[in-house]
Amino acid sequence: MLVSLSMKKFFTTVFLLFGTLLIFNVPAHSGDRKKCADSAAEAYTESASRILYSACIRDNNMVFKTKRHKCALKAAKAKTESASRRIYSLCIR
């Protein structure tokens, strides 16, 4: 019984440590112009690039990405202008 309880404590500690590191190690690139520009440069279309850069700059959350930022990242993967606009507008709703 003691081994089982100590293993539970160990795994709980490891899980909490891993969760904490994962949460605070995720870069949101919020407000950093160079990182936002680099991210926007990878978009397939010009409109998606503008949307992504704008969402990244306006994102004030330093740990997590906002919904607008996540939607802009999804739109950046679209291959056409109309598809990127459609994906972004549907995602924001």
Task: Report on the architecture of this protein.
The model has no long low-confidence stretch (mean pLDDT about 80). Helices cover about 75% and strands about 0% of the residues. It is elongated. The chain has one domain. The chain has helices at about 1-25, 35-40, 45-60, 65-75, 80-90. Helix 2 (about 35-40) packs antiparallel against helix 3.
In short:
The chain has 93 residues and is an all-alpha fold. Helix content is 73%, strand content 0%. The protein is built from 5 helices and no strands.
Indicate the radius of gyration in whole angstroms.
Answer: 19 Å
Structural class by secondary-structure content = mainly alpha
| Total count of helical runs of at least 4 residues | 5
Number of DSSP strand runs: 0
Write the layout of secondary structure elements.
Blueprint: H1 2-25, H2 33-41, H3 46-58, H4 67-76, H5 81-92
Helix pairs in contact: 2-3, 3-4, 4-5
Give structural attributes:
0% strand, 93 residues, elongated, 5 helices, mainly alpha
